[in-house]
Design brief:
- The structure is a single chain.
- The protein is an alpha/beta fold and about 230 residues long.
- It is built from seven helices and six strands; from the N terminus they run βααβαβαβααββα.
- α4 links the parallel β3 and β4.
- The structure holds 3-methylbut-3-enyl trihydrogen diphosphate (2 copies) and magnesium ion.
- The site of one 3-methylbut-3-enyl trihydrogen diphosphate has 11 residues, from β2.
Length: about 230
């Protein structure tokens, strides 16, 4: 790929298709999640290398609590493992870990692993890697409205709402990628996605490698973003 393409500053990904990836191979869905987690590792590294400033991935939605207990349990276990194993390397690579969502719904062990990772990488400046966990955009908006009311804000603007979202300290996503062929947002970053470019691919998340990521970046660089102008 050419080096001089326009890079998105913030890439948000809906990592979908782990279950189908496993099913295709006659394996349990949870195996798909394991391989999917390994892929996260790879894509974070690649974003660092490319100089992307913000990567935000959808790992667990508020609606995903509806899944069978065993699957939710495996996802939690993988999450703890990820934070415990990866934090040090992320720190060395200048990656700041960040979480959006209501993790108070998670067990104390899971919350501790997440909070430790955030704390240990808080001074990193190269890539902000945000994981959406127990995240739902509607719940995020309800939370924002409640806080705005509690704070008695008089002059409410679009910026006020942005400042009360979990994403208050990051730019809106320039590019939203969804894997696995589904073409919907599934309650992801509804307010922030107002002017995002969308990239949908049939590729399942565990197969979404550096080459697939480059395809998305290349497609993005060809888009003409008008933001309502001419
Ligand atoms: C995405 O893969 C990961 C999570 C939602 C946690 P899925 O588990 O949704 O995989 P499919 O969509 O069933 O294939
Ligand atoms: C969206 O995927 C959530 C994550 C990737 C974490 P889902 O698989 O849960 O979404 P739906 O159910 O297909 O809309
Ligand atoms: Mg899915």
């Amino acid at each position: 790929m050419e080096n001089n393409i326009i890079l998105p500053r913030h890439v948000a990904v809906i990592m979908d298709g782990n279950g189908r990836w496993a099913k295709k191979r006659g394996l349990p869905r949870t195996f798909g999640h394991k391989v999917g987690t390994e892929n996260v590792r790879k894509i974070v590294k690649y974003c660092s290398k490319k100089g992307i400033q913000y990567l935000t991935v959808y790992a667990f939605s508020t609606e995903n609590f509806k899944r069978p207990e065993e699957e939710v349990g495996t996802l939690m276990k993988l999450l703890v493992e990820y934070f415990n194993k990866e934090t040090e390397e992320l720190r060395q690579n200048g990656v700041r870990l960040n979480v959006i969502g209501d993790i108070s719904a998670f067990s104390p062990i899971v919350q501790k692993a997440i909070n430790d990772g955030i704390k240990k990488t808080k001074d990193c400046k190269d890539l902000v890697f945000t994981i959406a966990l127990a995240y739902g955009a509607r719940a995020e908006l309800v939370r924002a409205v409640k806080m705005i009311c509690n704070d008695n804000v008089k002059d409410i603007t679009e910026e006020t709402i942005s400042k009360y979202l979990y994403t208050f300290d990051m730019p809106d996503p320039d590019l939203i990628i969804r894997t696995s062929g589904e073409q919907r947002l599934s309650n992801y970053l509804l307010y922030q996605a107002a002017y995002s470019e969308f990239y949908f691919t049939d590729c399942l998340w565990p197969d979404f490698d550096e080459r697939e990521f480059d395809k998305a970046l290349e497609e993005y660089s060809k888009r003409n973003r008008r933001f309502g102008g001419v």
